[in-house]
Amino acid sequence: MNAGRIIGLVLLAVGIVLLVVAINATQGTTEQFRQSFTGKYSGQTMWYMVGGIACIVGGAALALFGGRLSHTH
Hints:
By secondary structure, the chain is mostly helical.
């Protein structure tokens, strides 16, 4: 397994953790109160969601195509 795929798997795992943290944060009393009145979550929760999704997408792409991209000369 090459370095690109390993980095991809690590990013995928980090993204899943960030997304789980974000989902757990949305269930908190403060976040539910804020969402009820403003219609959106706090900036920190949104960054966890966006970061988690970005890491999942990037990590999956590296894990799937990381080995192939390094051999295209």
